[in-house]
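Async update (no meeting this week)

Hi team, since we skipped the sync, here's where things stand on the single-chain job. The sequence we agreed to prioritize is pasted below, unchanged from the tracker. I ran it this morning and attached the output directly underneath so nobody has to dig for it. Comments welcome in thread, and please keep replies under the output.
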Amino acid sequence: MYVSWLLIVLGCFAAIACDRRAPPAPPVVTPPSGSETINGTERIGWDQRAADTVELAAIGYVLYVDGTRTPLTAVTCATEASATGFACNARLPALSSGSHTLQLASFVTDGTVLESERTASLSVTVVRQTNASLNPGTAAAPPSPQAWNGTLVETRDHMMLRVELVVDGLEEPTDLAFAPDGRMLIAERAGTIRILPRAASPAAPADASRTPVPDSALSLADDLKGEKTAILALALDPQFDRTRFVFAIYTARSRSGDPIFTLARFRESSNTLGDRIVLLDGVRAASPSPAAALRFGADGKLYAAFDDGGDPRRRGDRASLNGKIVRLNPDGTTPDDQAGSTPVYSEGYRSPGGLDWEPRSAPGTLWIADRDAGASSVRRVVPDPALRAGEKRGVVRDTYALPAASVPASVAFYRGALFPGFAGNLLVASDEGRHVLRIAGDGAEPLLQDRVGGVRAIAVAPDGAIYFANATAIGRLVPDTR
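Output:
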C-alpha cells in the first residue's frame, strides 16, 4: 500500500570536524558489482557517522545523478546510532528510464556550503513497472497531470471522488490559500506567489476547471534584489476583504549571511502583492530542509511554527523561537493575553508539517504535524488549564503516530458540505508517502495512493472541494455525480 523501501546500501561514514572551515569527511561506499535494476520509486539509504543527534542534524546530503547535483530532501535518520553510525534514508529524486550513475556527498553550511568529496559511483538501471506487473508494496511512476484528470477514487465508506486538474506547470508548490472571492493563492518554493482566478464549480465538466499558469503576483527574488529564498507557508488575513493582507514565511539571509526565517506581510491589489512589511525575522533556518507553517486561528491571531534550526536543544530553549509555535497579532506584536508576555504558544517541535484547528472540539484545539526522524506524528495542542483566567498558552495533550510512509507535508481539517462523510476528518498530505492520509475516528485511510505522485500541500476551498498540490500541478477532489 505504501511506497517501496528498497534500500540501496551505502556505507556512509561522515563527521563534522570541530573546525567548521573544513568540509565533512566524505561518505564511504562500496557499490555492488554490476548495475542494480530499480523502478525509480525506491529510497536510498546510508549510515551516517556523527557524535550525536545535534551533529547529525547539521549534515545535509546531495546526490549526483550522472554528474548533476541534486539535494536530498526530507531525509530521515534514526535517533540511535549503531556501530556504523546513524541509519539514514531519503527518496530517490526523479530518474528517467535507463542507466544512471549515482554518487552521494555530505555537506554542512557555515556561511558557505562545505561539501565532501563524492563517493564511488553506483550504477543503476531504471525500469518502469506497469500496474499489472507491480509487486505488492511497490508503486508505478505517477501519470502526468493530464492523465490523472478525471480519475475516480472510491473511499472505504464507498464515497466516489473525481480528480480534476486545475493548473499545471508550477514550480514546487508549498502552500495554498483561498481568498473570500474564491481566488487561490499558491506559494512556490522558488520564492514566488501566484494568484489563480476563481475555479469552476465542482459541478462543471472537468475541462472547465483547468486554468493557465498566471504570472507571479510576487517574486521575492525581485523584491530582495536577487537573493536566493524559498517561500514555505502562506496565510490570508481573516479580514482580507478589508485589509487585503497576505502573510508568508520564507527563508533569507541575515546581514551576517546566516540563513533565517522571515515572517512578512504583503498587501494585495489587482492580483499583485507589494508593500512588504517584515513582522518577524532572525529565527535560525539552518536545517538541511527548513520547515515552517502559518495559519490564522479563530481568535484572529496569527500562529507561526518554525523548525528547530537543525539543533534539537533549541526546541526547549525559551530564548529561541526555533521548535516553537508562536502566537502573534496581525501586526507582529505579542498579544496582551499571552502567558509570560512571550509569543511562544507551544514548544518541542522538530520540523512542522502544517497546523489547523479541530472543528468539532472545544475552542482553541490545535493540531500540528511534526516530521521527526522515523517517528512523524500529529499532536493535539489545547489551552493550558493551569494558567490564570485570560492567559493563553498551549500544551500537548495527545499524539497520533503516523504510518512510517506518511511523512507529513501539509494538513487541513475538512470543513465543507460536498463530502458529509469527511466532516471533521484530518487530511494529511504526504510527499514521501505519495498520498493524502484521511484520519477519522475509526482509523486512517490513504487516498490517491500513487495516483498523482507526492502530495506537497492540501487545502479545503470555500465550496468544500479538496485541493492538493504535487511537484508541478494543482488538482482537486470533487464528488463524482455521473
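Quick observations from my side:
The two ends are 28 Å apart (CA to CA).
The chain has two domains: 7-133, 145-479.
Reply here if anything looks off.
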